[in-house]
Structure formats: C-alpha cells, structure tokens
Amino acid sequence: MLNSKAIQFHMTNHFLHYIKVRSLFIGLYFSVLLTSGCSDGALDLGDSFVSTPTYTALIDSVSISLSTIRADSVATSGTETGLVGYYQHPSLGGQEAVSYFSISPSEDFTWDTKKDVFDSITFVVHPSGYSIGDTTSTFHLQVHQLSEEIEKHDDGKLYNVSHFGYDENKVLGKKSFNPFPKRKKKLEVKLDDALAQSIIDFMVTNHDHSDKTTLFREAYKGFALTCDTNLTRSVLGLSATDELASIRLYSHQVGIEMEEKERNFLLESSTKQFTQIINHNPNTIYNSLENGKDKLNESATNASSLLQSGSGYMVRVDFPYLNNLLEIKSEGRIVKAELIIRPLIGTFKHYELPPTLYLAEVNKVNNIERYFTDADGNPIAAMLVVDKMYNETTCYKYDVTSYLNYRITEPIIDSQTGLMIVLPDDLNNKSLDHVTFGGHTNVQSQSELHIYYYYYDTE
Predict the structure, then answer these.
(1) CA atoms within 13 A of residue 345's CA, in its CB half-sphere
(2) How confident is the model at residue 14 (pLDDT cuts 50, 70, 90)?
(3) In angstroms, rounded to a whole number, what is the distance separating the alpha carbons of residues 268 and 308?
(4) Where do the structural domains in the chain lie, given as residue ranges?
(5) Of the candidate ranges 6-15, 209-218, 383-392, the one whose mean pLDDT is the lowest
(6) Which class for 40: exposed (0-12), middle (13-18), buried (19 or more C-beta within 10 A)?
(7) Backbone phi, psi, residue 156, to 5°
(8) What pLDDT band is residue 408 in, cutting at 50, 70 and 90?
(9) HEC-encoded secondary structure of 220-247
(10) For residues 83 and 99, what is the distance between their CA atoms, to the nearest angstrom?
C-alpha cells in the first residue's frame, strides 16, 4: 500500500490534487499540450478531454518488496574460467570453490625406455586475474585425482552443485604462494612422481591402441583443484583453456648431449571443466533457502536482499498493492515509471559493482517468463548511476513504464507475478562477486518505485 507520505488510491478522483508527495501542478489544458508536442506521444486522451484540465504528478511512495531467491543451480561449465579457494562472505559465511577438469592423452607422445629419463610432472595453470577476499594472505593450492569420471548432465552442462568423488586426504601436489590481485603469472604445481610413472607406462603400453583416448580417460578420470580451507582466505580465477592449463611431464634424453623435453596433456574440453561452490555455514539466514521456489523477504534480512554470481542468489521485486494503480487506469495514464534499486551503503565500492544488470518477469515459483528487451530482442540493462564521492546516491534505474501500463490492463492482476534482477550469463558463472541491495523498508538505502502520470479531470 502507499505509505503515510501519500493518500491511498481508493480515495475520490480528486485525490491527486492533494497527494502528499512531490507533485508538479501544471494546470495546462489539452490544447496547450498539443502545442508542446504531446499530441504524437503515447498518451491518447480522446476527443472528450480536449477542454479538460490536466495535472502531472509524481508518486514516490508506492510500496515494493524485495526478496532474495536462490536458483537450484548455475551452469559453470564451458566458461573457460575456473574458480578455486575459500573466503568469508559477510552474509553467507565461508564459501569454497573447487575446480574440476579432465585431460586428454598427448597425441604425439613417444618414449624411448633406453634414452628417456623422467624428471618431474606438474600441473600448469594461469590465473585469470580475478580474485575476491583477502589476497594479502598466503594461498594454499592443492591438486587431487578424481575417483569418478566427469559426466555432463543431459543438457550437456555441469553446475555449481555438481560433484565428483576424490580423496580429500590424498593430495597429488600442493603449492603456497601470494595471490597478488590481477596476477596472471603462470602457476606450476609439482605432482607426485608416481602419477608420471603411471602415465608413462600407460602411454607406452597403449601406444598403438585404436581407442587409446577412451582408455586414457577411464584410467585418469580427472582432477580437482582445491585449497587448504583452514589457511586460505581468498578465491582466485583460473584460465581454463587447453592453451593455459595442462598436466606437464618433464624429461631429458641422454646421448652425446642432454636434450630436455616436455610433454603436455591438455584439458579434454572446457565443457568438462566446471566449478563447484560449497557453502560452509548452512545455518546463515540466506543459506536457509532450500530450493529455487522459496524466497526470503527483506523483512527477514535486515531490510536488504542479496545478488551473487556463481551461487545463484538473485533479487526479486514484487508490487504487493498493484491493484491500487487501477485508479490511474480510469483517471489518467502512467507516462513514466522508474524502478530504483540501491546498493546498501557501506557494503560496496563503486568500481566493484556489476556494470550490467538485467530485469526479467518471473512467476510465483521464480521461473523467468521473459526478459525486458529492446525492439531487436536484446535484454535491456539498468542504468547504473554512480556517486563516486559518497556512494549515497549510487543506484540502478530501470524504466518499467510499459510493464506497469501493461500490468494494470490485465483482466485480473496476478499479484504473484514479479520481477527479477539478474546478471548477464557471462557475469553469472565466472566469479563470486556480490551486491547487497537495500530493501524498500531500508531507511539508509531505500529501493523504490517512482511513478509519473497524467491525471485529467472530466468534471
């Protein structure tokens, strides 16, 4: 309902004159509107209103309600990016990222048992430059061998909740280093020599086998990159392409002169590389969301809602008293409606905010029905307004004019239909970046709906 700042919509049709919000009394006749260029606009008043006084008003106190929902899963495969590490989220508690991948046999592998001498085997990876958490703390990277083969779902994807078995207590290799922000320098982790000897024996034995690749994948099902969660305090991004991530076998060949060699076992496919996200504190309020149909109203989360990449947290916006806007339908027309969503002051730096956020219509069980799109069908992004000095007026703005005009023409307004604020696909599965938004009841960072409308008096 409208709060105490405004008289409710069910009052007489002269209520717009006295509404206690910022309003602009224009008092222009329709003939004046014609001279100002409005005759060709979206507002069609009809012949009966040619001599009718018209008023323009702004309502900034229409109630909205923010909620947090968590999608059942987020696809994290095929992104050519992996995440690994552990950090403390301010609202969710500990979050761990585990990156899985599988490798293919080296196509040109040869081994002369009389001349080739094994030196070492390593896992090679390049950080993507992404990080979140305390990068001043030493990062403790670990490599494990999988006991289960990575199998994609029927849709060809792997998700943040996918998991394949490995022995957490059996570490093939580990490396401690300082995870400098934006670092892209190659990381190389020395692995157990026994793995190298096993691979060499396999490649020599099956050198001429017609189905060597299948046999190799059965023998070496994959690997998991983890961290020591007791010591690591950040999550890092990794470039997961066959050019930047591999198992590397170093050797040398004896002869008149020593010849050093390296053989690379590349990533099998980026579609079989994915990141699992694990929440270590299931009892936090946001982690109480059990499935994608649930929603956590802002009243339960200190008048705020959470959006996070990688874990499926999104923000839903509802209009509990949309029926009250029917008065506008009979007395005038919405000419502009602006949804303003404000990040919670004190929880963000303006340069960390996602540059693009989309808006979608969702049903009562949080399934996306359609995105807000332009004439070409491209999703429309919010306008990000940044207050670089104080962050007090930083917000995302959405034009919801057409949406609200459409909703109030429905034969029966469905109060269980709402809107969802979502990240673009290319930002939704490559990081653990997050934004906390102030709800409509948040005094410091209030998200709100502004409605501008024409009201015409026929009496």
Answers:
(1) 14
(2) very low
(3) 29
(4) 15-70+291-456, 81-279
(5) 6-15
(6) exposed
(7) 80, 15
(8) confident
(9) CCCEEEEECCCCCCEEEEEECCCCCEEE
(10) 6
